[in-house]
Design a protein that fits this description.
By secondary structure, the chain is α/β, with parallel strands linked by helices. 49% of the residues lie in helices and 15% in strands.
């Protein structure tokens, strides 16, 4: 990554209080980037910002248009125009579709898809003014294939990949790229929660549950969050300036 994009750019990461989001922020912090970290809970996002040099933590709800507008206004006040948006906030619940309520459906689409739209749209104005930008969605292999019992999540992530591809074409004649990173099962608190749900609903041991998910990856391992962070970092480099509209699977050959 060149100095122009590493040390002087403003990177905004949503869902940054833990897991992949915090690793993303830490990766860019090591390069000297100015960072805005976003999370729903004021205490946890402030704690994450305290751990990451050069960052400011702002509590916001990415599913709410006004909250997102306020997030970007505060981010600009702290660090100037935003050059990189990494839409990482997301979440999933597990249930057969017969027990999936409309509220659960709407909530899942709101955080995993609408949140990407709102944050990309808010950041785009800054990037157009700078004539440079990177819009990155942390999607999932669930945006490239199906998984049982998480229909709303898969639908939302497929939508996020479609949004990425469409917006990339819209911006193709500009120096702004749009890409999605699609991790497989990754060692995060979200994975821990998924394993616990399997234990609770099937009676399997924790190790059996871990093994069943790990083996979905042909490399027979979980993804390290740093692999996602390194991929995002590369997408912000000059070497990746022709990479746009892509859904990059980081999943050991699963897709």
């Amino acid at each position: 990554m060149s100095n122009a994009t590493t040390f002087e750019r403003h990177v905004l990461v949503t869902g940054a209080s833990r897991g992949i989001g915090e690793r993303l922020a830490a990766r860019f912090a090591r390069e000297g980037a100015r960072l805005t970290l976003c999370g729903r809970d004021p205490e946890t996002i402030s704690a994450a910002a305290a751990r990451i040099p050069g960052s400011v933590g702002i509590a916001a709800d990415v599913t709410d248009e006004t909250s997102v507008e306020q997030l970007f206004a505060q981010a600009r006040e702290a660090h100037g125009p935003v050059s990189v948006v990494i839409a990482n906030a997301g979440g999933s619940e597990s249930a057969p579709i017969s027990r999936t309520t409309i509220d659960a459906w709407n909530a899942t689409l709101a955080v995993n898809l609408t949140g990407v739209f709102l944050c990309f749209r808010a950041g785009l104005a800054d990037m157009q003014e700078q004539s440079w930008g990177r819009l990155i969605c942390i999607a999932s292999t669930a945006g490239l294939k199906g998984y049982g019992y998480v229909t709303p999540y898969c639908a939302a992530k497929h939508g996020a990949v479609g949004l990425t591809r469409s917006l990339a074409l819209e911006l193709a004649k500009t120096p702004i790229t749009v890409n999605a990173i699609c991790p497989g099962f990754t060692e995060t608190p979200m994975l821990t929660e998924s394993i616990q749900r399997i234990v609770d609903t099937t009676g399997r041991s924790e190790e059996q549950a871990r093994t069943s998910l790990r083996r979905i990856n042909p490399q027979d391992r979980f993804i390290d969050p740093d692999e996602i962070a390194d991929t995002a970092h590369w997408l912000c480099s000059d070497a990746a300036r022709s990479i746009t509209g892509q859904a990059l699977a980081v999943a050991g050959g699963e897709v």
